[in-house]
Design brief:
Helices cover about 45% and strands about 10% of the residues. The protein is mostly helical and about 170 residues long. The strands form three sheets. The protein has a two-stranded parallel ribbon. Strands 3-6 form a two-stranded parallel ribbon. The longest helix is centred in the middle third of the chain and has 20 residues, at about 65-85. It starts with 7 loop residues before the first strand and ends in a 17-residue tail after the last helix.
Length: about 170
């Protein structure tokens, strides 16, 4: 928004292992959207699909391993598909605000997601599908700013990504 983009918050978190936790995080996203005047769109919650498409065969991967890369691609592909279906020219992700996430890996997943929606027909000629904007929200004290903003608004802050595998060993 600071760069002049019109923003819609697309909440897609099929990785979260319980409906209750999904709803708790969605409520926080909606509160942030209301505070900032930003529309919030909730993706369909389908943890069973996430387990099948992302985690199956990768259950024993360590945190930050191949399962996480698969998860980034899964979620960003859903965002790209939504962006394409609704005429957005770009999309990005807030995943990069976390000091626990490696931004170049997220950027690669975002680029894959943009590619996955391909080129669409724009009435007689081809036009580009939504592009992924590789924004590293950790920069310029992004994580600190996000924690302060959450505290100001009284938002719930989670301690893990939400999947059952991320909590192993805690």
């Amino acid at each position: 928004m600071e760069e002049g983009h019109d923003v819609v918050l697309f909440f897609s978190n099929c990785n979260i292992d319980t409906r209750e936790e999904f709803e708790r995080r969605l409520a926080a996203a909606r509160a942030l959207g209301a505070a900032d005047g930003v529309e919030v769109v909730a993706d369909e919650y389908d943890h069973a699909d996430w387990l099948e498409q992302v985690a199956k065969g990768f259950e024993h991967e360590p945190e930050k391993g191949a399962r996480c890369d698969r998860c980034f691609r899964y979620s960003l592909a859903r965002a790209a598909a939504y962006a394409a279906a609704h005429g957005f020219d770009a999309f990005t992700t807030s995943l990069t605000v976390s000091p626990h996430k490696v931004s170049p890996r997220i950027f690669a997943a975002g680029a894959d997601a943009a590619w996955s929606v391909g080129v669409k027909d724009c009435g007689g000629g081809a036009c580009a599908a939504p592009q992924f904007l590789p924004v590293d929200f950790k920069k310029k004290d992004g994580f600190l700013r996000s924690t302060r903003r959450a505290a100001e608004l009284g938002l719930y802050r989670q301690s893990s990504c939400g999947c059952e595998f991320s909590r192993r060993g805690r």
